[in-house]
Batch of 2 targets.
Target 1
Amino acid sequence: MGNKDAVPIFFEKITTLPGDALPEIKENMYINITQDPPADALEIKRKYLRIIPYLLGLVLCGFLLAVFQIVVGSPHGDLVENIALVLFVAPGLAFFYFAEKLHDHKALSPKQEKEIEDFCRKDAAIAAYCAKVSLLDRKLIKAEYDACKARIEDL
């Protein structure tokens, strides 16, 4: 039909990788420990925690509407089923999206905090980053722990 090697324009950035390397999957929150820590990490977590209950409420409404249609029935059954499906699926997908983003903002376990102390002894950049975080009057979050761990593994 045409050139089999032709690549659509929207795939150009993905396919220009050197060799046969696959693109890396980036984590939800990118932390660079050589830069200043994000000052709004706790505000982002609060925002996600405020959004999630509303999404779960919409999912519950969709579920209850489906149960109503099954138990009572309605002359507009197809419409009620479609509305229930929309109320269940769309907020459900959004819920999983925000819940996954919330994983990066989890507090560290005591074991991870001890590992961070070891990382601070091994690398001055990690120690400086931890000092900057403590100046913000907050503790490290999981995304920052993962970035510190990745830096130690690269050393």
Note: The longest helix spans residues 41-71.
Target 2
Amino acid sequence: MMIYRVVTYDRTTEHMKGSLIVPPSVLPRVKKIAGFKPQDDWLGEYELDEGQTRQVAKVLGFRAEPDRFYYYVEPYDPPEDSGFQQETSAVR
């Protein structure tokens, strides 16, 4: 099954500021709000306008700040789990 996330970009720097996975239980509602068409799976991101952002925020339970951020719904292909634990080295 396709995984989607809501991605937040800073309006000033255009850098990604956050990412929130859309749970499968609410994905149909989020896709409808975003205006997805049935043939659109995997076709890229959908920018949300202010109204759409507020509706999606209500569904997913986050505080929308459309004056500070752009919000997109986009497909997410999580990295494969190789089974290896990456060791993090301590910063000296």
Note: The CA atoms of residues 10 and 69 lie 5 Å apart.
